[in-house]
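In full, the data:

***
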Amino acid sequence: TWLNRDLRTPFGGVKQSGVGREGGTWSMSFFSEMTNVCVMQP
């Protein structure tokens, strides 16, 4: 889980969490894409 984790920390990871020993904020932004979403109110 991402609970109680600080993405600015460049190390860590627990067993098979998938986070690994590197990553953090940069890795999250690398796999993210900003987009606009417009919702029409009734």
Notes: The mean pLDDT is 67. Residues 19 and 40 are 37 Å apart (CA to CA).
